[in-house]
Design goal:
The complex is a heterotrimer of chains A (429), B (316) and C (260). Chain B is an alpha/beta fold and 316 residues long. The model of chain B has no long low-confidence stretch (mean pLDDT 94). In chain C, the strands form three sheets. Chain C has a nine-stranded mixed beta sheet, with helices on both faces. A two-stranded antiparallel ribbon of chain C has the order 2-5. In chain C, strands 3-4 form a two-stranded antiparallel sheet. In chain C, helix 2 crosses helix 5 and helix 3 packs across helix 4. The chains are: A alpha/beta (429), B alpha/beta (316), C alpha/beta (260). Chains B and C meet through helix 3, helix 4, strand 5, strand 7 and strand 8 of B and helix 3, helix 4, strand 9, strand 11 and strand 14 of C. Bound molecules: flavin-adenine dinucleotide (2 copies) and adenosine monophosphate.
Chain lengths: 429, 316, 260
């Protein structure tokens, strides 16, 4: 069997980040990606949190093909027929260094693949890995297109469902409960229209999240990000919530319904659909993170469940890039020491533990739990909007006192044992 | 005043070029010359003369036998020089397409091949051709003094012959025989079909799993009164002749109705169907690009849809 | 036998979108010319048939980023060496400029028995480059090859013309262009792709070839480059095969295509 230093299964952000680090160290790396090019099949909502990873590969971010820095944050709680939008305008978000940017994967991943090649790494696209080769508990390489290729270390960056790695027992089979499903469209709009519709200055971007009716009350939400001359628009729904739902909602129709909402339609009007995709998101939290390394292998990115869906923020790309970085460091050190066994690679998990990757996942430990409560997606958005709707309503009858409307509403919708319990639970996140 | 020189080894194509050459010459104040080579040169000269060519340069130099591209290019360069021609129109047959650039190189000329229209714009001749594999049509203006255009056959009409022939000039050529010798020549298999003129076309592609299955396509074509055409992908298998290819390297069709069956709709194919009045497509893949060009789309298996279609058509 | 194959990198045409009739070229990945891969395959088969031969791939581009993948792919297929002519001045060249550059590179390479081209590039499909190079080198040219056999002092080429198949014999060196039916290009294995990076690769600029930018300036001015207007109905016929078939036949009746 022919052999290389390191094989990386999957050329998404996690795999490419690892490859970039390894190639920079002069190691022989082979990234195998089944897509026509890196980024071709990769899906994200659209926002990369750069702050956590700015110091990782600092030389890269200057030239990265980001779309717009997010300077305007909006969230809409959608009740039945009434919705409340909160806008956060922060001077800090509007000034550089910006904490997050909207991105398009077709561009970002391709660019990162170019950087890998620039460093002498090999990104081989249009090739699918068929199998991870094991010798006992040790990963010894891959099978692809009928060839077996060996490697001192195999980095598994195959993305969310982890089909190859679960087949050989490196992680659990994916379950509906631990995943959400995202549907997303990219609609092209002239940048001047985007700036007008979202009240942005040139070179600024908006992120707008939606909760409640948008998912018909199922666990999840909607998102809308502005790119340079397109918008990313999508819906994320818990897979289990979708399965449990009695009346059959075809999940992909949610996105169409979303676009048809009276206050969304004017935002997307005239946009040309240029991309549609559906993709899973890890949602099991830290409890579902598999063993991150073993003899001859490491797991990075979504394949290792390193993503965080925390209601208003979905994070996975920063985790992917950071885990790739730490994986590359661990492999380079292991190769130097000539020990690519589990012990030799153990440093990988330690670095993740002392970085934001596992720390943030630890902090958010209870989120998956809390999010399983459907009331979060039905009761609360409805309650908030319902209350505000009452406050703003001037009817034919004499108005109630303002205070009693508020107190009545709050008492009815928030001051009950159940809600209090839920609110208490939320402190954990 | 400079001349326009036209040449094609195919007489009909040469007459088309003569028609356009005459029109351009009149507008630009240029004379029209033509070249005719080989044993039938004299006959061609007569026809060309009757179609408005002022001077036909003929040569039966034995070096021209077999029409070796190196020799024909040299001969045309010499004729162009003798005629004082600064613009050469050649038919973009396979022979013409390999000849035009070689001639252009000899003349230091810019060249456009597979030209689909020649239009006089602000005193220059602007040539259109497909670009980006057929995604777009580029309009090109050559900035060299000498220009060579290889025009796709059947782009222009052929004028009615007029009385009064042009002058026949024996070209004084000095030629070496071609370095490449013709060993043999045999006709291509397959019956001749004229897709350019077809009103209805059923275009079949690699969605057909076996050669024998093409019977389904033939039946459908018969039921529709259509010609059968194919993608290059399918012709490369040798299942149908090359004269049935539609697209960039095949026929540019203009039917009333084109039905694409098991055709993915790659641009090199669709460039040959985009002028169809109505397009329908049958493909198992709902994301196949062919649907972007279709008026009516059926996402389905041709092995199920075709028999059903034939049945429905026969019942009419 | 020294075989040089001229290989072009073009945009992945299938990825080009049209917006307001304009092609959107931004972020479109590159691809090796389809017919150029046939030419490489033909060269490899000849090399293996003749023995003691070498296949050099030659490409011309304005940046090496553009040709990196292409060259990797054809080296991985089995070509022995690569020569890249990379110069920013080539950004705005035309087929005549590319041909001049290739001819100069071939002269610098020095020994070539066969120079293979695609019959046309996947994007321009102009078919000009091969014949122009043949003229510049003053060597015979045979276009549209569908079978190439080396023999005696030359090559025997069967080629596909509009109405007939023609067999020609030419002395070496010669320029050939190939059609797609000549072969099915091999798909390189992963390991061969890895190793491709280590094969000898030269990179020359125009100056290395003694050419100045003016020598490759384009003489072809593109006035416009727009997609043809298409106005289609985009009606999808739903249901099972029988329903869909009925739907289409009804539509054809309504459109007056059948039943007249
Ligand atoms: C709808 C949605 C919205 C999201 N929103 C955000 C957001 O706003 N911000 C954020 O940070 N994160 C977000 N995420 C999460 C983020 O996109 C992922 O965490 C991130 O893409 C993970 O990167 P990765 O490289 O691990 O996996 P991927 O990008 O999925 O890459 C895996 C790669 O492996 C390849 N592959 C798989 N199997 C094989 C095989 N057998 N052989 C060869 N190649 C193979 C795939 O083709 C793919 O390219 C979102 C996700 C979704 C789906
Ligand atoms: C320079 C150049 C010039 C070219 N010129 C031409 C040209 O003139 N004409 C031309 O056609 N091509 C041309 N090509 C080739 C072109 O790029 C494509 O390769 C070709 O058109 C593809 O043929 P296809 O659609 O039959 O095959 P494919 O692309 O393989 O498509 C087959 C389709 O069949 C569908 N299918 C499969 N099974 C079924 C089923 N059971 N029922 C229904 N559908 C099914 C599949 O979903 C697929 O979409 C050229 C290429 C180059 C590089
Ligand atoms: N930039 C280039 N570099 C190398 N070869 C080229 C280049 N452009 C064209 N060719 C070759 O010339 C053939 C015909 O190209 P074209 O004249 O553009 O149709 C291609 O199939 C290639 O073999």
């Amino acid at each position: 069997m022919e052999k290389v230093d390191c094989i990386i299964v999957g050329g998404g952000l996690a795999g490419l980040s690892a490859a970039y680090g390894l190639a920079s160290e002069g190691l022989e790396v082979m990234v195998v990606e089944r897509g026509d090019y890196s980024g071709a099949k990769n899906v994200t909502g659209g926002r990369l949190y750069l702050s956590p990873i700015r110091d990782i590969y600092p030389e890269l971010w200057e030239s990265a093909p980001f779309e717009r820095p997010v300077t305007r944050e909006l969230v809409t709680l959608m009740g039945d027929g009434a919705s409340t939008t909160i806008e956060l305008a922060s001077d800090r978000f509007a000034t550089a260094p910006h904490q997050s940017y909207t991105v398009l994967r077709a561009r970002l991943d391709q660019w990162l693949a170019d950087q890998v090649m620039e460093k002498g790494g090999m990104v081989i696209t249009k090739n699918r890995v068929d199998e991870i080769l094991m010798e006992g508990d040790k990963v010894i390489g891959i099978r692809a297109g009928g060839d077996d290729i060996g490697a001192d270390v195999t980095i598994i960056a195959e993305g969310v469902l982890g089909l190859l790695s679960s087949k050989v027992g490196l992680r659990e089979q994916p379950t509906a409960r631990d995943h959400a499903l995202g549907y997303k469209e990219i609609l092209e709009l002239p940048s001047s229209v985007i700036q007008d519709r979202w009240h942005l200055n040139e070179g600024e971007g908006a992120a707008h999240l939606f909760m409640g009716e948008v998912t018909k009350g199922m666990m999840g939400g909607g998102f809308l990000y502005t790119n340079k001359d397109s918008i990313s628009l999508g819906i994320v729904v818990g897979m289990e919530a979708m399965r449990e739902r009695t009346e059959k909602v075809e999940s992909h129709t949610l996105l169409d319904a979303f676009k048809e909402l009276p206050h969304i339609r004017p935002l997307v009007e005239g946009g040309t659909l240029v991309e549609y995709s559906a993709h899973a998101i890890p949602e099991g939290g830290i409890a579902k993170v598999p063993k991150l390394f073993g003899d001859g292998y490491l797991m990075v990115g979504d394949a290792a469940g390193l993503a965080l869906n925390a209601l208003l923020t979905v994070r996975g790309m920063d985790f992917a890039i950071a885990s790739g970085f730490y994986a590359a460091r661990a492999v380079a050190d292991a190769k130097n020491r000539g020990d690519c066994s589990a012990a030799g690679l153990a440093q990988y998990e330690q670095s993740l533990r002392s970085s934001f990757v596992l720390k943030d996942l630890e902090t958010a430990k209870e989120i998956p739990h809390i999010m399983e409560n459907p009331r979060l997606f039905t009761h609360y958005p409805q309650a908030v909007s319902g209350l505000l709707e009452k406050l703003y309503t001037i009817g034919p009858h004499p108005s109630q006192k303002l205070s009693s409307t508020v107190i009545g509403g709050v008492r009815k919708d928030f001051m009950n044992a159940r809600t209090l319990k839920e609110l208490l639970a939320m402190r954990k996140i | 005043m400079a001349d326009i020189l036209v040449y094609s080894e195919k007489q009909d194509a040469a007459l088309e070029l003569a028609f356009k050459g005459k029109e351009l010459g009149a507008a630009l104040g240029m004379g029209l010359s033509a070249a005719a080579f080989g044993p039938s040169a004299a006959d061609s000269a007569g026809a060309l003369g009757a179609h408005g060519v002022d001077r036909v340069f003929v040569s039966e130099d034995p070096a021209l036998e077999g029409l070796g591209v190196d020799v024909v290019a040299e001969a045309l360069a010499q004729v162009a020089c003798e005629a004082g021609a600064t613009m050469v129109l050649i038919a973009s047959t396979r022979r013409g397409k390999e000849l035009a650039p070689r001639l252009a190189q000899k003349l230091g000329a810019g060249c456009v091949t597979d030209v689909s229209s020649l239009v006089l714009t602000d005193g220059s001749v602007v040539a259109s051709r497909y670009a980006f594999g057929g995604n777009t049509v580029a309009r090109e203006n050559l900035t060299t003094e000498s220009k060579v255009f290889a025009v796709m056959p059947k782009t222009f009409e052929i004028a009615a012959p007029v009385a009064g022939a042009g002058a026949v000039v024996q070209a004084a050529l000095s030629l070496q025989p071609s370095a490449a010798k013709v060993v043999s020549r045999r006709p291509k298999d397959g019956d001749a079909v004229n897709l350019d003129a077809a009103e209805r076309i059923v275009g079949v592609g690699r969605g057909f799993a076996k050669r024998d299955d093409l019977g389904l396509g033939e039946e459908l074509a018969a039921a529709l009164g259509a010609e059968l055409a194919c993608t290059k992908g399918l012709s490369d298998f040798g299942w149908l002749g090359e004269d049935r290819i539609v697209g960039l390297s095949g026929a540019k069709t203009k039917p009333d109705f084109y039905l694409a069956v098991g055709v993915s709709g790659q641009i090199q194919h669709t460039v040959g169907i985009s002028s169809a009045k109505l397009i329908a497509a049958i493909n198992t893949d709902k994301d196949a690009p062919i649907f972007q060009l279709a008026d009516y789309g059926i996402v389905g298996n041709l092995y199920e849809v075709l028999p059903a279609l034939v049945e429905k058509l026969k019942a009419l | 036998m020294d075989i040089v194959v001229s290989v072009k990198t073009n945009l992945d045409l299938q990825m080009i979108r049209i917006k307001n009739r304009e092609p959107v070229l931004e972020a479109i990945p590159y691809k090796t010319g389809d017919l150029d891969k046939n030419a490489v395959e033909a060269a490899l088969q000849l090399r293996d048939a003749v023995g003691e031969s070498k296949v050099i791939v030659l490409t011309v581009a304005e940046s090496n980023r553009k040709v990196r993948e292409t060259i990797k792919e054809v080296l991985a297929m089995g070509a022995d060496e690569a020569v890249l002519i990379v110069d920013p001045a080539l950004e705005s060249t035309d087929q005549a400029g590319v041909a001049r550059t290739l001819a100069a590179a071939l002269q610098k390479i020095g020994s070539y028995d066969l120079v293979l081209f695609g019959e046309g590039s996947s994007d321009d499909y102009s078919g000009q480059v091969g014949p122009r190079v043949a003229e510049l080198l003053g060597v015979p040219q045979i276009g549209y090859a569908r079978q190439i056999t080396a023999g005696g002092a030359g090559v025997l080429v069967e080629r596909s013309m509009d109405e007939y198949i023609e067999t020609l014999e030419a002395p070496l060196p010669a320029v050939l262009t190939v059609v797609s039916e000549i072969n099915e290009p091999r798909i390189p294995s992963l390991m061969n792709i890895m190793k491709a990076g280590k094969k000898p690769t030269e990179e020359w600029s125009l100056a290395d070839l003694g050419l100045d930018p003016a020598a490759v300036a384009s003489s072809c001015e593109t006035l416009s480059n727009l997609a043809e207007e298409q106005d289609r109905k985009h009606i999808m016929l739903e249901g099972g095969a029988a329903e869909q078939a009925a739907g289409l036949v009804n539509a054809l009746l309504k459109e007056g295509i059948v039943g007249r």
